Amino acid sequence: MRLVAELETLVLRQEDVRRIFEIVGRDHVMTCLIERLSDGLGELGRGECPNSPPRAGFTRGAGARGVIDVMPHYLPGSGLTVKTISYNPNGRREANLPTVLGSIARIDEASGAPIAICDAVLLTAVRTGAASAIASRLFALPKSRTVGVVGAGAQAVTQLHGLSLLFDIDTVLVHDVSPVNAKSLKQRASFIDCEFKTVSPHELLASSDIIFTATSVVPGAGPVIPDVEHLPHLHINSIGADEVGKTELPVSMLRRAYVCVDHPEQARTEGESQQLEPEEIGLPLSYFCAHPEDASKHMNSLTVFDSTGFAWEDHIAMDVFLELARDIGLGEKVSIVHCPEDVHNPYDLSSW
Amino acid sequence: MRLVAELETLVLRQEDVRRIFEIVGRDHVMTCLIERLSDGLGELGRGECPNSPPRAGFTRGAGARGVIDVMPHYLPGSGLTVKTISYNPNGRREANLPTVLGSIARIDEASGAPIAICDAVLLTAVRTGAASAIASRLFALPKSRTVGVVGAGAQAVTQLHGLSLLFDIDTVLVHDVSPVNAKSLKQRASFIDCEFKTVSPHELLASSDIIFTATSVVPGAGPVIPDVEHLPHLHINSIGADEVGKTELPVSMLRRAYVCVDHPEQARTEGESQQLEPEEIGLPLSYFCAHPEDASKHMNSLTVFDSTGFAWEDHIAMDVFLELARDIGLGEKVSIVHCPEDVHNPYDLSSW
């Protein structure tokens, strides 16, 4: 007897994901993500689960910018998660599309059937914000009040959101090559009660306790901030890594900093760590989630979280989205996989 | 202005795929696949399109057999196809599941959105049958009448189907470790008008013009046929490659044969070519689809098609399924991807 339920696919439509946020609230989703991701990275750091392979990226042809990545993670006992995600910095201009856009599927371990599929635009933005919040909790001073934003696009909203749940932010200093983006961040992040100021990179560096860089800088055209005077305890989350050759930070700052990566292999291929020798790169975030006391030693000096985003983070984020959807009763189940009653006869169409 | 249609996902349910086969007939689908795959492999052989990366396989943990593979193919101008496919030789016994089970998605090149998702059980079986038919048209004698089947499971049905459309088969000789499977193939392949006989491996080798091996032999437990007397012009399609260490043919036969592979890297990792040195392996099928005259030289001697199944084949097969579904008007469009009106604000949920 076959358990048909195992083969059905739960499709979470965009309105289902909206309902999750409407019902439980964005703070609840982000808080869940921060705690679950911190726990999951800790498991990885203690060697209790396998790491993700580095993602396979396909570079767009014919002069179009950006990549489409395939990011699989297999957790024995839980299943396979596969995210496909496009980074297309021209997408907004050409078709009013988010720069980072994709979807994510969960594959049942025993059957191989896709048991769920949902959006990865909001999921990626939230999990990336959660990862930076976790790194900041480990490496930034707890009394950090001023956050510097370099690149005020979509990712900036969830980066600020994650930080706002762990730090008592009173000032956000914003720099973007587009003055319109820099200015509109205040409205888009209006759920954070603090002062927003558009400033020069020099002013931003001089006063920020925590900075994040989330830009679409062209490969080879970085860095996006100068190496100028900054607070001694500055912590930077550099999250713009999505293309080989794309970097956001001055190598001189990286060399002075303790650099913590999320996924060592990916970081050396597409992160800030492309600019460093192996011995200049610190331990991964998963290590510090397992041993937080080792991170606090670095709190009073310059630290960088080199965030490339990896598939284990997506697996955990999808768990959270699916659990919230299940608790509320959202999504539509459809039968996609062809499973004939006589499994030895693919042309047995009669019994469907 | 955004073209919303580009972001919607066409979900082909299992009943939609059934309708395709009911309306156009299995022969039409298989014939389309054979011709489109032959053309597509020819393009690859002429260097007109990129090859697929080798698939990433995740081996099931905790003593469970089999793998779950992720198979991406990116064709500039067409999009990214990602198939996730499980090989689980115990699935049938444990849960009456097909041994090979999965699904396939097409990602829009510009947006990164999943524009279609459908079954990969029937698709994989049909495209694998089509690939073997193409190899047999190139390497087997056109007057081949007797086909030997080693492993009479699900794949045997579509292997026979593909051959039956290109050769005037009068006799099918069947061997399977399960006598029940061997016997039931006649019913499952009853659309082919010929005689079916259950025979020993020796009898099968002695009389077959074309043989295919499609078994679930345990890695290291092969070969599944002995190296005994066979017709001088014998052509073998070995299609059981899905695990490292799993092989079906005696290495002595492989060394005597001209071995044509589908995907050289995969063949050396998980195909019959694991048993060979690089210099013992012939040119890939794509070369011969571009230069069929070079294949016919081998028609009167022993040839082997080492079929591992690769993602370019799946990309083409999905094209065919999607075109047939579109012509008939099948499938349901759903909005999965989160695309806020203000693309710089992932929390802009109001405008959905």
Automatic annotation (TrEMBL), chains A, B:
Domain of life according to the entry: Bacteria
Xref: Pfam families: OCD_Mu_crystall
The protein's name is: Alanine dehydrogenase
